[in-house]
Amino acid sequence: MQKYQGGCHCGAVRFEIETDLDRVIECNCSICSKKGALHHRIAPEKFRLLCGENDLSLYQFDSKEASHYFCKHCGIHPFSRPRANPNLYSINVRCLDDIDLQNPSFEIAHFDGKNWEESIKTFK
């Protein structure tokens, strides 16, 4: 496992994770496609908020099962608690420091979030 740090654009929110970054999820649902997030899920014990708890704003919609966190200063979305498993953190890989998305070392899995109810049944 490797440690990664990341955060929002203005630096108010910073976090650290420990994970094997081997797979990320690109979702085409209404919010993910608009914010351009690439998701990587981790257990809560592998996530540590370094600073910025009071700088986060929560957004929820529809079923209100997912918790989408944004920096209330710069608007960047560093992580969420996903609807598919609210006990986990879903890190926005685009917010990790020093990640090369032009030459990724991980698989990018596509999830059909536009058809969430049907897709979640078979998504691995």
| Biggest sheet descriptor | 7 strands, mixed
- In oligomeric terms, what are we looking at? single chain
Q: Please report the number of helical segments.
A: 2
* Class per helix and strand makeup: mainly beta
Low-pLDDT residue intervals, each spanning 5 or more residues: none
CATH class: Mainly Beta
Mean pLDDT: 93
SS strand fraction: 35-45%
Our measurement of the CA-to-CA distance between the termini, rounded to an integer number of angstroms, reads 21 Å
- CATH-defined architecture: Beta Complex
Number of domains: 1
Strand order of the largest sheet: 6-7-8-9-4-3-10
- Helix content percent band: 10-25%
Shape: globular
Q: How many E strands?
A: 10
Rg estimate, integer Å: 14 Å
Entry keywords:
mainly beta; 2 helices; 124 residues; 10 strands; three-stranded antiparallel sheet; single chain; Metal Binding Protein, Guanine Nucleotide Exchange Factor, Chain A; seven-stranded mixed sheet
What does this structure look like?
The protein is mainly beta. It has one domain: Metal Binding Protein, Guanine Nucleotide Exchange Factor, Chain A (Beta Complex), CATH 2.170.150.70. Helix content is 10%, strand content 39%. The chain contains two helices and ten strands; from the N terminus they run βββαβββββββα. The mean pLDDT is 93.
